[in-house]
Fold each of these.
Amino acid sequence: MRKLFVLIFLVTSISSCSKIHLFGKKDSFSKALKSTDYEYKLKMAEKYYINKDYNHAQQLYDDLFRVMKGTDHFEDIYYKYAYCAFYLKDYSSAENLFKGFVEAFPNSQKSDEMEFMRAFSFYKESPKYQLDQTNTTKAIGFLQAYVNTHPGTDRAKEAQDYIEKCRQKLERKDYENAVLYYDLKYYRAAVITFTTLMNTYPDSEKSDEYKFYIIRANYQYATESFEEKKQTRFEQVVADCNDFMDRFPESKLKKNVQEYLDLSTNNIKTLKQ
């Protein structure tokens, strides 16, 4: 019974302490938010920012942003205010703030960092490959602009990595669209899309796969054509197969391509008889 009483007392005490701490923190923030002592408000904003409480820090910086413009503190406030938005995953606002920082402080030692973070904010807004890729395209543009203006720097190398990830995402989306045309038996559309895919991503590790899809699509298109057009279209398949052999001599798909080459050659012979 005594042990039970002690346990209840400890739980109650801990709960009470937690509530005091919680309300104390809330009261401190409310006091800082309402305060017209801007040095105190700045001190509290710094405290929240250091403790990664970006929600509270952002609200205080929002007040300070308006009243401390032109002061010695303003650059640092602007810098941290922008990062608050970024850490809170409000990437659209962060992008605007990073941009604004560079415009307000073009000679700042932090302006290069802010340029990078602006581009990186677009990257963070880039959605899954299945969705609209407008922000992915924007991210590539801004990241590439950063690389061009800051060649050889560590951030430029990092930006280049993000560009590659964006390009992979765009390539994946284009690939899925091309496969969809093929699966729906829109063979001409599939050929055009896979050809565009190869031209857009000439260094892709999947180039041989894209070319093989072109061969397959052209072969299906030929088999379903009117008799008078079949020979010309099978000849196109033969040309595609020969091009594949020249371009991808080490490809694992060579055997499959050889099958289509033999089938197309035999079809041409039959049509000529």
Amino acid sequence: MTTFGASDWMKDKKTVVLQYTRISDRQQSKEDRKKGKDGKPLPAKKKPALIEQKKYVDDLLKANKLPKVKNENWFAEVQSGTDRDRAEWNALMARAQELVHQGKRVFIAVQDPSRWSRNTRHSLVALDRMHDLGVPVFAVREGIQTGSVGDLHPTEELLFVQLQGGASFVSQEQKKKADISVEVSKEAGVMAGKGQPLFPFARIDPLTAYYDQLSLLTLPPKEGGGKEAFRQTVSAMTQPNGVSPSGMTRFTKAEIERRKKLTQQEYNDWFEYRKMIRDFLIEFQHDPFANRTESGKINWKARALMRMTGRYLKEPWKYSQRSDLEIQLILQNPKKYLGTKDLLRWDNIVGHR
């Protein structure tokens, strides 16, 4: 039976973990592009996107009971994954070779295969080099590794290469699925804002009301149907705290786009996932989008959860659902997953208690 995930030897405290994080220059956020007090661009390890990407990897390493990454073993850079001559990427592999020659067991941790490389040929050459050294690359998001001499994982390695190859194709087509701040945030599905509202405190879920009244669109206005009657009726059904008549235009456009781009099964999966997140917001008595709470207090879990799932909820054809483990990590330590503005609010509210 094929077993996926980290090998037992990786969990040994003596094992050395090298971490590689990367964003491309074109996908930096405004925060990432800010300059330091000296007027120079921020070093890679000071960029919010790479810091957030590192936290993401660290959290999943911890969840898998794998060793912690020492700061000197963190390699971060801002460069396209299609480039072969990436300074930190090459330095990472040189460090791996150095440690192996010192008799250490080593593995490399990345967020996902696309962080390793976006050029299949370059990736395979580098993986072959690491394989012969006994150094596997472990993609924490997917929980797969490339294996190494004496510890072969052919099925996982094939999946790793296939996923990386898909990233290479996407790059060639100039379609970026990037989002752990803007680039990393996109790759991880993190919203810069709060995404699409779910209206957790509406009298009726707007999506339910939408389909209940869809037949109005087939009737002419003189018979009480048409687009305006549809917008007004659905809005009225969801009040209070529901979608406005003007908001129904955006709501309808988004639903039509989802139906067009998703298969029926994909839509069903999205629908159930949306319901789960909406139920969480109801349980937490907080709507991050509307800043409305039943208890009158901010719920940090709700805000972190919406930020980390917002992109998938808004554009499920581009992004992936967060796993149960990721949801658990978000809810256990929401501060790690808050945006910049919410972190300031956290400091002002929680920090002064």
Amino acid sequence: MESFSFDLIHKPWISYADLKGDYSSVGINDVLMRAHEIRSIEHQNPLTEVAFFRVLLAVIHRAVNGPRTSNEWKRMYQAGKFDARIQEYLEKWRQRFDLFSPSEPFYQTAGLRVIDKSGKPVPQTVVSIALEKASGHNKTLFDHTTAELSVRLSPAEAAQKLITAQMFSLRGLNKKITNLFGYQQSYLNAAMVSGIYIVLSGKSLFEALMLNLLLYNDNEPIPRTEFDCPIWERNDIVGTTASTPKGYLDFLTCKCRHILLVPQQKSGDVFVEHMHIAQAEAFPEVDNPAFINKRKKDGSWYHPQLNPDRLVWRDSSALFAFDEEIDQRPKVFHHVKAMGSTVNLPSRYMCIAFALANDQANPLAWRKEKMNIPLSLLSDKNVVAYLIKGMAMVDLGERALDSAVKSFMHEYHLQKNSKGITEKSKSTGAERLYWDRMESNFHQFLLDMDDPEKALEKWERAIKKTAHESLDLCLRDRYRNAYKAWEKALSNLNMRLAGLNN
């Protein structure tokens, strides 16, 4: 039997852009030791970027055994780069970072086999761990490869797909027998599927990792036990059901699938076409400390899922609003607010939202959405109040536009059926045009937040202008002779927009 090896610590497999804008690939050791020289991790799939990010956070937390206090965090941040503890940790666990180790393959389950009823191994295609490809009953997202066709992955690509699958795999039918776990009927969602994950980023990967490196102790970011550690340190075979993580490091590196990649070699090239797979652990009852929270009408909280037809910035009120007694924002916001009182932090950050939209286990879209925000938006309730006011105004602008379009349709068609009017109003595309154009205005609104009062005044003008443009472009050219209907719609819009800032 051939012996394969792929050292994830030193072999290049993580793509990045450096501070000069040049692109390359490195292993885990170099991406961390050179993090101060790297701008960001880059991948065509943003879910892979954030999956890598969580793994790197787990490595750092474990290597430094913390940070447990604000002073420890401050010393790390002010050093400007990661120290030798990272290299020492990776060297200690080097054997666990071999993708194809026969006894301890990275993020996998040694000895796993999917078998038929006679006990014969029946490896599965690696397509099933690639969300962008069709597999089983899943719809194709961005690729027209199906499970019936062969997909050949390089070791680097296999590692990328493996980590992404462990964090973003979707529930669904399994109906397979394995040698280790017997028959499994279905799969559960991975830990990152059920919400919108928030990351704060700065000028370098080092800064981004440090900003999101929360204080780690017995109760934070989630309760821990003495057995908490990254998945690659565990010697037991994790379970196959919903469970409670042993702590934050276990949660960061949750193994939601038992996987064993099957490497092959041809003409000197090592590749992966097949694997064995089964359900592993799931953590459905844990509140992800990096997820957006929203409040229901009954006062309870929940993690909203990504809506492919609604950009994340439209939920900015829920994302940034906070109460001193009930602060449900992503914990990185609390962390940066607290650390800002002990160390000189930048005045602006990039707030990045990562998420996967799905419907009944079918991937619909993935999203990486950036917002350039001032530090004051994380710490000053008065600045946040201006943002909340602005988001209320943009929603009122959309309702004013909707009312104007409906009044046009009522007059033009002389129709009283509200259902028919609603359908005709939506078909104009005015609402979609409004939100599409307000996106760029929103980013300008955030850039202007250093003077929130003037920012709000400028934002109000942008809302009114965009509402008028949307009405004009979607109705005037299409219905050139509908003068009466147009005048009624315009009057309706002006009346409603007049009270926008009341």
